[in-house]
Amino acid sequence: MSNVIQTPTLLAAAITTALLAGCAGQATSESTAAPAAEKSMAAAPMAMAGPAPLAPLGEPPIPPDNLQSPAKIELGKILFFDPRLGGDASTGCSTCHEPDQGWAWAEDFSRGYPGTVHWRNSQTIINSAYFPRQFWAGSASSNESQARGAARGGVAGNGEADIMEARLRVIPEYVERFREAFGTQWPIVRDAWRAIASFERTLVQRDTPLDKYLLGDKSALDADQLKGKEIFEGKGGCIQCHNGAITSDQDFHNIGIPPNKRWEEDGLAQITFRFEQYAKGQTQEGYRKAKSDWGFYYRSKNAWDKGKFRTAPLRYLKYTAPYMHNGVFYTLEEVVDFYDRGGFDEDGRTTLFPENKSSLIKPLGLTDDEKGALIAFLESMSGEEMLMDKPAMPEYAPLFTLAELEAAQEAK
Amino acid sequence: MGVRVKTGHTLLAAALGLGMAFGAQAGKYPDITSLPDLKINAAKAELGKRLFFDRRISGDAGIACSDCHKPENGYAHPDALSPGYPGNGHFRNSPSVINAVHKKVWMHDGRLGTNLNDVTREMLTEDYIMNMDMRVMQERAKQDPKYVQMFKDAGYGEPSNGSIRKAIPEYLKTLTSVNAPIDTGKMSASAKRGQKLFEGKAGCIQCHNGPLATDGKAYNTGVPENFDIFLDPMNHHAFIAFAMFQGIEDYMNLKRDPGYYNITMDAADTGRFVTPSLRELKYSAPYMHNGMIKSLYDVVGFYNRGGGKDSRKDSRLKPLKLGKQDIKDLVAFLESMSGDPLTSGQHVWKDPYPAEYPVIENWTQVKN
């Protein structure tokens, strides 16, 4: 694949992050160049020298308008675990991003707001600080705007900004902590997203066996893993998309993931499926006929983007099963078999948009040994499990005393 | 409908009558007559009934209209302050929705003056009421075969959030006074004496007139604040969100419900609330916008003392010097404006709702 095409995309992504960190952009214009890129990728010979090499993970980028501070990070941590940041005070970030479920949710579809189920797999928070494009289809541009979207979505937090802001203000410990972190008299909900983003920027893992290896510790990977690395970068072709320090080109591809069968079997999931078509701005016709997640199409509205998703980062995978945007694969074995078959599951199912399927996805002819080695290598991108206890939740308390209220009554 | 024609007249009468001594005031104000009949589409109302009692039309499927507007409480709620959507409290009393269809302004502060479709939307979408994303609501209805059939039977076609907001108001039309003595004429002697006081010495008719016993205007009667709005942080945060949304200045320091001030932002209107209907009070205790008065005796006692304490209190309210029997008679009259309870299957949806949404079979083949 040609590096020439790749570069502008990366550059654009970098600029986008710099501009949008901290603001809630839902940019829709990027990657109109994608089809051209895909076409020339197809035309290019399978030269493996092109893509950015795997690299050790550096420090996460910190947006200049939301610098880290201990007060902010601590506040963000409490908020991340606080269910009161959702509509009925039951569903906070950690509800779907459980530290002991890989900071994700261990079912195909994420659990939803009460009375709903989500329609996509819950993604891990670990290393999300590095991604210029967040969500499976890359619709948020920063941790800040992502958090805002997550707390509000009808099947996610379902909370409105004003009620969440009001709640924070009747929790004296928060009033104090927001004052310390942001210098405001009363908590402002936008600052809650900034604090959470700061906390997320601490949830990074930079000491995996792969990082150690890439930093020079040649004993960090065993022979099997080294063989896997070779396949990843060679016969398997994985590096063409999963590259660089974050193991993702942050571009969008249709790799052939079939629709989740749960949509045929679960009434609640069918409700959310149709809701999402509306919420994501489908046309009337699209709403009627959609039978799978159209992915990046919802943003670009280009037919060739149907079924494309952001190249998923591969770090911390060991703890985040099931895999893919709709969680159709429960093990890395299934994932590798899927790629080995050229983008088909064990029943021969593939994307409903085969015309958009990346030409990079083709039968690989891997032996069992090679598959095992590839999986061992994938696992070397995960370090120790990162666990965290839920912090104590600050309590509600009245803002006024009875005496103050009585005095106001007297004065009226 | 009669009231509307008489409204202009009322305005004038009220203006002229301002400083007037209590005397025979009947005739200056629209009488408390029977309510006009309404044309009701039975299939639409039946659909609205099922929706009104269905918790699945709230965000987390945890609360129905009928949880705050309870049939056995005259479609009001027995707590002074209404419950809120789960995780929230509220800051006002949940009013009866019986006869709401005959009103021209809704909510205690009168902030909605269009139609019940809008009131229904407000109830469905308000964070601390039902917190419903109406797109989710619509898709839930489509997943319930019984609704699919009922929407069709009602002539709405496929379930949609628009028709949900039409069907519920159609059902609300069925919630009107039935057999109230004031309408049937079967009033006790005490109630009749009470009516004389109401229209005369006690001066109630100045504000409580027309078929619903309300002129639809806002007054300051000096009802004391309900401190639980502020002492219970769950109520307070709902109140803060409300005040913030209304654009009230200094809302963090507010220690009272500003009432009609929400609408005019004129300090003179602070503490004014819309005159409520006096029908079906027998069931809808406690009273006033914040539920601060527990019984009808206490309400009459309140007026007998000349209302509450407020520098902006309406000048119509003066101590009435009513005797014990007068008070009993006034209460009897108030009770004569309540009819039969609307708690049978005719008004209440009694069938259970399905515990799960059935799957749409053959999903890949059918259109969404």
UniProtKB/TrEMBL annotation, chain A:
Q: Which InterPro entries match?
A: Cyt_c-like_dom, Cyt_c-like_dom_sf, Cytochrome_c_Peroxidase/MauG, Di-haem_cyt_c_peroxidsae, MauG/Cytc_peroxidase
Q: What is its main location?
A: periplasm
UniProt PTM comment: Binds 2 heme groups per subunit.
Where is heme c 1 bound in this sequence?
C93, C96, H97
How is the cofactor bound, as the UniProt entry phrases it?
Binds 2 heme groups.
Gene Ontology cellular-component terms for this entry are: periplasmic space
Question: Which Gene3D superfamilies does the record cross-reference, listed alphabetically?
Answer: Cytochrome c-like domain (1.10.760.10)
PANTHER family found in the cross-reference section: BLL6722 PROTEIN, CYTOCHROME C PEROXIDASE-RELATED
Q: Which Pfam families does the record associate with it?
A: CCP_MauG (PF03150)
Q: Where is the Cytochrome c domain?
A: 223-382
Source organism (scientific name): endosymbiont of Escarpia spicata
Lineage at the top is:
Bacteria, Pseudomonadati, Pseudomonadota, Gammaproteobacteria, sulfur-oxidizing symbionts
Mind telling me what this protein is named? Cytochrome-c peroxidase
What's the cofactor? heme
| Compartments where located | Periplasm
A GO MF label: metal ion binding
Q: Which residues take part in binding heme c 2?
A: C238, C241, H242
UniProt KW keywords: Heme, Iron, Metal-binding, Oxidoreductase, Periplasm, Peroxidase, Signal
Q: Span of the secretion signal?
A: 1-21
From TrEMBL, chain B:
Q: What is this protein called?
A: Photosynthetic protein synthase I
Ranges that cross the membrane: none
Q: Tell me the Pfam families matching this sequence.
A: CCP_MauG, Cytochrom_C
- Per UniProt, residues of the Cytochrome c domain are 43-176, 189-338
Identify the GO cellular component terms for this protein.
periplasmic space
Q: Spell out the InterPro entries in the cross-references.
A: Cyt_c-like_dom, Cyt_c-like_dom_sf, Cytochrome_c_Peroxidase/MauG, Di-haem_cyt_c_peroxidsae, MauG/Cytc_peroxidase
Q: Which residues form the signal peptide?
A: 1-26
Sites where the protein binds heme c 1? C65, C68, H69
Q: Does the keyword Nuclease apply?
A: no
Query: According to its UniProt record, how is this protein modified after translation?
Result: Binds 2 heme groups per subunit.
Q: What does the record note about the cofactor?
A: Binds 2 heme groups.
Top-level taxon of origin: Bacteria
Q: What is its main location?
A: periplasm
Q: What are the names of the required cofactors?
A: heme
**Subcellular location field:** Periplasm
Question: GO terms for molecular function, please?
Answer: cytochrome-c peroxidase activity; electron transfer activity; heme binding; metal ion binding
Q: What does the entry list as the binding residues for heme c 2? A: C204, C207, H208
* Keywords, alphabetical: Heme, Iron, Metal-binding, Oxidoreductase, Periplasm, Signal
Q: Does the keyword Mitochondrion apply?
A: no
